[in-house]
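Handout, page 2. Input:
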Amino acid sequence: MDLLSARKSRPSARLSRAALRTRLVTRLAWARARGRPHTLSHLVTAQCNGRCRTCLWRDPGSAELDTATVQWLYGEAGRAGLAQLVVWGGEPLLRQDLPELLLAARRAGLLTTLISNGWFLGERWRELRGLVDALILSLDDVGPAHDALRGLPGLYERLETFVAAVRGDPLRPTLLVNTVLSDLNRGALARVAPTAARWQAGLYFCPMETGLLTSTGVASQLADLALPAEELRAAARTAADLESAGFPILSSRPYLELLARDPELHGYTCRAPRARLTVGAGGLVRDCTRSERPLADVRELRAAGEPLSRVFRLPGYQQMLERSASCTKCNNPDVIELSWLWDLRPAMLRKMAELTSL
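Output:
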């Protein structure tokens, strides 16, 4: 079945909001009971047309999985019971086979989130329409300031044009905006919030990641670009004020309170590796506690006829889960709120309801 036929065969590319919430909660409970992740996070490419100084992931010379192997990976994720797929990079739209990959995710029963800088969306959305449940647009400032941060003159206007074009589309995905906070865009939240509101998009923010955790500690390649602790506290207070003023801030109150109290964010128990399996562009399954020691290679699993679920039985996987429970190196909501969601904290379940109502 080709892409067009696949789209026509479904009355709607998106589930009803109530059905979506029910499905997510049901799959989450099933994953917790089975001791398996809920989400596959796939760095589909490390190639990118942007030049962001805060990025840890761009690697122009790196390899990436071929189409058939990615399709196998997504099929295996569905067979293993995972519910969601997050596709990111690099810039995913640089992959010409992205529609085929997202169709494979759809066939596997995965709800798909696509993260993009948005440069190519205007020209490629017709291929992707109906295959994306949630679209996260990276927006670190507004106007020329955002273009300068991304090294892409004209990017902000492209985003404006795209959002306007899909506003009335019945297959419009849930639209989100992510703002990475760094020393390069101080005070950006207050500038970005009106744009997110105008776009009818939820807004969340992340303190920039400065390095990867290795077996010998954090490799902090970009620590000099991070905001100091007091400015992170101020950002948390700003976000809370913006939410009170009616702006679509998605960061939960518990996260904002924790960030305002302790920017190092030691007050949580990490569950992220339990909830999320991360695969890099070349197919290596990431151990977030020892980034230089991947757990497995999906190419080797496929070649050996092994299922993806074999990863969950590896001693290294169980050891990662044990190490991560005492790790508090991450200070972004991707990790902390995901951990709280895994623990079924009521505030996170309410946030899920808000997200699926956008």
